[in-house]
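Quiz preparation item.
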């Protein structure tokens, strides 16, 4: 069995996955548009261009996504993707990338369990936790 995460986007899945490729070291995204699917003739030309399914791999972990077309978009809530890193400088780099035009919920700081810890929601409304445990250093 494998575990993956599936994210709904508000029409910006391509942009998000390209950003994650650049800033998180994700694999090259694989995209399937709604225009390639069986319901393409029922959609507007703009919706046919949107992403029906996409996938990337971030350090061995699959993340999949879609643009909300057939259902209303709802920003993710009640969950976070955790990035556990070994070095504080990597935590700082990730924090800078994910907080750029996003929302910082907890600034990068030291805690009793981590040399660097932060909580952000990125510009694509995806919630992240960045954690650099003390035992990793």
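Solution:
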């Amino acid at each position: 069995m494998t575990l993956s995460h599936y994210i709904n986007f508000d029409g910006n899945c391509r942009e998000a996955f390209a950003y994650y490729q650049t800033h998180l070291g994700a694999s090259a995204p694989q995209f399937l548009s709604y225009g390639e699917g069986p319901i393409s003739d029922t959609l507007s030309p703009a919706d046919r261009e949107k992403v029906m399914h996409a996938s990337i791999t971030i350090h061995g972990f699959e993340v999949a996504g879609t643009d909300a077309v057939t259902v209303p978009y709802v920003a993710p809530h009640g969950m976070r993707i955790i990035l556990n890193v070994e070095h504080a400088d990597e935590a700082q780099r990730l924090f800078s990338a994910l907080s750029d035009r996003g929302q910082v919920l907890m600034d990068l700081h030291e805690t009793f369990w981590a040399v660097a810890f932060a909580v952000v929601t990125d510009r694509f409304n995806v919630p992240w936790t960045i954690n650099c445990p003390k035992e990793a250093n």
